[in-house]
Design a protein that fits this description.
mainly beta; Immunoglobulin-like; 5-stranded mixed beta sheet
Length: 233
């Protein structure tokens, strides 16, 4: 999980497609089919501590259950219930997953009638700072808020520096992290910067890495200098 000196979280909106009703069983007698509820989410990516709203429609006056399956997605459990209004609309506000989570809605009267699941990505919150300590000395620090699932403990943080505008990042130091609080990882280092204006990156591979962020953002930290791809700048 590589972090840049100018970190930001982008929140994207995505509507969850409605699940189609199950076809009637092929038999001599007609079988009544319970239509699955439709559902949509207000966003499919959010920072930890943020919330997502789930809404949709079902038969008027129907009881609906909000269910989620957090990473590693072994099973669903019910985390909320509601009753659809006269027009069939329902909503669940301020749903706060603490890691990547699949969400769906089921009918209380027919639990097998469920909407399609949607994966909501939860990103860690990153704060990076630099402080000049005099000629040739700069303190770099990182504070990372993350899920408490997966365990905590000190791990290695690799610090890379580059002259501003360069794609060549040099490994400057490897330090140990510490848990500043439950769910908050902290690390710092004092370096001799390569130039007056420079950029830095810090990389770490925590135990909870697979539980947060998009899979494409994951990867083993480099053990040496590296060239940043032009599309990643």
């Amino acid at each position: 999980m590589a972090l840049r000196g100018r970190a930001r979280v982008i929140v994207l909106a995505l509507a969850l497609a409605c699940a189609a009703a199950l076809p009637a069983a092929a038999s001599g007698n007609a079988t009544e089919v319970t239509a699955a509820p439709s559902a949509r989410v207000s966003t499919d990516e959010l920072p930890i501590g943020g919330s997502v709203a789930v809404s949709g429609s079902a038969a008027p006056g129907a009881g609906v259950l909000l269910q989620w399956s957090p990473y590693p997605y072994r099973s669903y459990r019910t985390v909320g219930s509601a009753t659809s209004g006269a027009g069939g609309a329902f909503s669940f506000a301020a749903v706060r997953p603490d890691r990547n989570t699949r969400l769906r809605v089921a009918l209380a009267s027919s639990p097998q009638a469920v909407s399609a699941a949607v994966l909501v990505i939860v990103d860690p919150l990153v704060a990076l700072h630099s402080q000049s300590l005099g000629p040739g000395r700069v303190r770099l620090s990182m504070s990372l808020r993350h899920t408490r699932s997966g365990g905590a403990g000190s791990i290695a943080a690799s610090w890379f520096l580059a002259v501003r505008g360069s794609r060549i990042f040099r490994l400057a130091a490897v330090t140990a992290t510490r848990e500043a609080a439950s769910g908050v990882t902290y690390a710092s280092v004092i370096v001799n910067p390569p130039a007056r204006r420079f950029t830095f990156r810090v990389c770490l591979n925590p135990a909870w890495e697979g539980a947060m962020g998009r899979p494409g953002a994951h990867g083993r930290c480099p053990a040496h200098d590296f060239l940043l791809p032009s599309h990643a700048r």
